[in-house]
Amino acid sequence: MLPVSGVKPLFPPALLQKNLLPCPLVGRLSSTLTKRICFYIHEWLLIPLSTWYCRMSGVQMQPSVFPLPFGLVLKRNPRLREQEGLAMNLARAMGVPAPRFISFGEPPACYKDSFVFPSLLMTQLPGTELDAVIDHVDLEVVREDLAHTLSLMRRFASPWGEPICGVDGGPVAGPLVPGSPLPISADEAAFQQLFRVMGNFTGATGRTRDVIALAEKFFARPPHAIVFTHGDLNPHNIMVNTDGHVCGIFDWEAAAWLPDYWEVSVTAVYRGRPWGEFMDEKVTSGLYAEDTKGYRHVFALTQDALSF
Is 21 helix (H, G, I), strand (E, B) or coil? Predict the structure, then answer.
């Protein structure tokens, strides 16, 4: 099955000669009742259990992450959405080493103005964050593993067709998404129109007009395939084991169905060197170099809309 447009991603090149596979089943969001029940279980049982567990085992607690026995971890923060859990399980179904999503808890309205936030229970990943050991691992091994991971994620056609949307077909949210959460776009042209509005393309004057012209040149490029995208594939979200191989990818809060340049070009523009250059030039062999160059001008006009 192909998206309606029939466009295939540039990376990996092998996909240009293959048919995309039907997407694995995307899970459904929990009912309000289920989310309320899970919230109280997480808040009244699992967080106190995590405090006891960390004290007894000498594990250091973090502000929004609560380690638990039996290889579990609870994540809690005000931006958390259940779609992150759905993205984890979809990634796992595609063969990506992601945590297993177990349950999502959402506080009732009476907690709105307190410091009580949504929470997500999942399995822990093995290994060490790449960010902590990046100077001591073979980046060629990391490159091969990330290229393989992207290949796994891009074998599948979007179940929603041409729309640019969240993993569940809803809005797109994430730290690199201007105007997050961004409404569903019917296609890439509609997606670009949202960026024109956020960048005030029609009201700009002076030098900004030159930047707009370059951004419009980027928008005029051939349409991109819509692919399953992690959305924030950076060293602090990648786990490696002792031999330097990637053994896990976490923080799927920005996962969505996005144009295939997004995973690489947006990261390269926003994060800069050396990681952005590594993703752009090494992992995908420069296939998105022109997209990266073009998106740089779009970012210059829309960066003020980043509020995630």
Answer: strand
